[in-house]
Amino acid sequence: MTNKNNPSSLIKQNRVTPVDQTIPKKTGLIQSAKTAKIAEKPKNTSPRTTSKAFKNQDATIKLSRATKEELELLMKIKNTKFAYEMIEMMIDSYVVNELSNDEQRSFRTLKEFILS
To answer: Residue 83 and residue 39: Cα distance in Å, rounded?
Structure first.
């Protein structure tokens, strides 16, 4: 005995099957929906997804917007194309002008130890 408010099985419905339809285009050509080619996604060939080909692009740093704008101004003045070039110049200048001889020696030693 089944209760009408609580059916014990799913209601069977007739299945609708799509009919092969042709899609008219503005040029007058008719293309079958079954034979239409799906456009392939272009392969991403950026250096980040492929091998690490460039040593100067294997890390990122975060800057405030104001610092980024100042860096871009310095890049224009010094006519450098990439931010890492300007940052390298700034580090070199800082090491020579601001660090003592002992600090410079420590910096060079640690730099060689870390990079090798």
So the answer is: 37
pLDDT digits (tens, 9 = 90+) for 10-44: 666 677 666 666 655 555 444 444 444 444 445 55
First-residue to last-residue Cα distance in the chain: 82
Of 52, 75, 71, 54, whose CA–CA distance to 63 is shortest?
71
In angstroms, the CA 74 to CA 86 distance is 7
CA atoms within 13 A on the CB side of 40: 3
Encoding tokens for residue 18?
């799509």
Q: Contact, 107 vs 99, CB < 8 A?
A: yes
pTM: 0.51
H-state helical runs in the chain: 65-78, 83-98, 101-115
